[in-house]
Amino acid sequence: MPDHLAPTSFLLPLAMFAFVSSVTPGPNNVMLTASGASFGYRRTVPHMLGITLGVVVMVLLVGVGLGAVFEQLPVIYTALKYLGAAYLVWLAWKIAGSAGMDGSSASTKPFGFWQAAAFQWVNPKAWVMAIGVIATYTPRENFFANLVLAALVLGVVNYPSISIWTLFGSAVGRALHSPQALRRFNWCMAGLLLLSLYPVLVDSSA
């Protein structure tokens, strides 16, 4: 981004990027839809807050130098990528077996705050968002101040954007009265989560 622009001229384009990146389908939103259907909106709030905090912290840490570490030691990034893929497969299996809002399954419960925050580090889409915010929408002049501002904008936009998916899932959960129907919905969500691994598979075969 050119440095001669006004200091806050990047905020509107950044907010638009944050909205599009947050609201489009991806692992987080598939998981939130399934959680909303199985557990309802209120019990999914810690999951959403964890996502928002996770991406904000990721932007800050990558911006202050963690990206350079991955450039020097790409094996760390590669390990995170495949660890994330394996974790997503496990999450898909858990979603496929999720219970309804009555909590009838003792083996499943909503994602916790810290679980969701930590998950961003193995979430390919979160990495794309973080790198996009830093490389494209954060001016180099007064970089660290702008980095903090960019991270805050991302956090403010991210939460209501991902809430849309949780609300949708919650509405679906209320509409699907039979356990069989909810189970089929969760199987569909699990399948979509597995499909989100496509970029990782393509990259590994390149």
From TrEMBL:
Membrane topology: Multi-pass membrane protein
GO biological process terms on file: cysteine export across plasma membrane
Entry GO CC: plasma membrane
A Pfam cross-reference name: LysE
GO molecular function ontology, one term from the record: amino acid transmembrane transporter activity
Protein's cellular compartments: Cell membrane
Main location: membrane
Transmembrane annotation, as ranges: 49-70, 147-173, 185-202
Keyword line: Cell membrane, Membrane, Transmembrane, Transmembrane helix
This protein's name: LysE family translocator
Naturally occurring in which organism (per UniProt): Diaphorobacter ruginosibacter
